[in-house]
Amino acid sequence: MHNITLIKGDGIGPEISDAVLKIIKTAGVEINWDVQTAGADVIETEGVPLPDRVIDSVKRNKVALKSPVTTPIGKGFRSVNVQLRKELDLYSNLRPCYNLPNVKTRYDNVDIVVVRENTEDLYAGIERQIDNDTAESIKRITRTASERIAKFAFDYAVKNNRKFVTVVTKANICKLSDGLFLESARNIAQNYNLPLKEILVDNCCMQLVQNPNQFDVLLLPNLYGDIVSDLCAGLIGGLGVAQGANIGKDYAVFEPVHGSAPDIAGQNKANPTAMLMSAIEMLNYIGEDIAAKNIKEALFKTLENNIKTADLGGNASCQDFTDAIVNNIC
Ligand code: ATP
After folding, report:
1. I need a labelling partner for 105 at 20 to 30 A (CA). Which of 34, 48, 211, 330 fits?
2. Is the CB of 240 within 6 Å of ligand 1?
3. Per-residue confidence (pLDDT) for residue 77, from 0 to 100
């Protein structure tokens, strides 16, 4: 029996969480879910969007599965996702992107792993209003954080038989901050028998759109990592299929790349694939490799049978799609 924190989120969060829990249960994994709420709904009763009990729960269980929690745009509280990563020092954001069966995309054989630094850069939230017409954000990059994420990228590359790592910066313009990130990657690369390639983020975006097959593992600071991982999600069928994991020294939180999709919430239209693939990675992480493999095969078989949700051009509801996966689990 595993103890795992479940943050159900809001928007489509509860629908896709329920779907994933049903699939995991069918695969026979015994999990005692420690269900926690966070976000706007919690502010009314507890005063903050991310109460200590959520952090404490993840610290207790070490592992969490998380659905999206809405972040207000341009005002309101700080992103729960960003806070959680910071509080738990989940310094690496790992986003493997590869083609799924029968999901129509512009390119075949895409197989890119995005490794994004998760704790600093413009996401440190150091902002100030100078006057009514001027605001500043500080882009903070440290050697410690840059070297540990570079080490994570290389360790991942070695463990998963990847061929090379490409570090992505804008070091020609942000000479000090991105320059430090680049220098850190170069330093760490010397300890490995894998090549480090270097590319500027603007060129990287163009190359990804024109020829994504040329890339293997991408290593990026926080902001570029966020943007490029959505770009990579677009290469493999969109946000509905893009998985993610936030991993630190002591804790790991697995969550889809997409947001809470309020436009389709409560309509039984959400695609649970991204959340399911994040959960598959979580099962591998806790040593439930056989269940992870069975669920992945059931998902692939469902897609091969052309059962797909609307975002992938199909007409299955979230419920139909989930039931089809459940039926395909041997
Ligand atoms: P955030 O800023 O919170 O990350 P976002 O701006 O990236 O959110 P999303 O909430 O991820 O936005 O939604 C972007 C678009 O993708 C919306 O049209 C949404 O309906 C669609 N979308 C996102 N996730 C899914 C999903 N799991 N299934 C189907 N459609 C989705």
Report:
1. 330
2. yes
3. 66
Q: For residue 200, how far is the Cα from the chain centroid?
A: 22
For residues 112 and 209, give the distance between their C-alpha atoms in angstroms, rounded to a whole number: 13
- Residue 37 to residue 14: CA distance in whole angstroms: 10
Pairing of strands 31-36, 63-66: unpaired
Site to substitute for ligand 1 among 77, 258, 275, most atoms within 8 A of C-beta: 258
Q: Report the pLDDT averaged over residues 235-250.
A: 94
| Amino acid of residue 291 | A
Tell which residue, 202, 164, 168, 203, has the closest CA to residue 182: 168
CATH 3.40.718.10 residue ranges for the chain: 1-94+241-330, 106-235
For residue range 91-127, what is the model confidence (pLDDT) as tens digits? 999 999 999 999 999 999 999 999 999 999 998 889 9
248 Cβ below 6 A of ligand 1: no
Q: Could you tell me how far CA 17 lies from the centroid of its own chain?
A: 15
Query: Please, what is the average pLDDT of the chain?
Result: 95
The whole-angstrom separation of Cα 124 and Cα 137 is 9
Question: Is the CB of 21 within 6 Å of ligand 1?
Answer: no
Q: Top-level CATH class of 1-94+241-330?
A: alpha beta
* Minimum CA distance residue for ligand 1 atom 31: 240
Q: Are 141 and 178 in contact (CB under 8 A)?
A: yes
Q: What is the pLDDT of residues 257-269, one digit of tens each?
A: 899 999 999 999 9
pLDDT of 137: 95
Centre of ligand 1 from the C-alpha of residue 182, in Å: 31
The CATH number that domain 106-235 falls under is 3.40.718.10
Instruction: Pick the atom of ligand 1 nearest to 271's CA.
Output: 28
- CA gap 16, 180 in Å, rounded: 40
Q: How far is the CA of 309 from the centre of ligand 1 (A)?
A: 14
Residue partners of 285: CB distance under 8 A and separation at least 6? 63, 245, 252, 254
pTM: 0.90
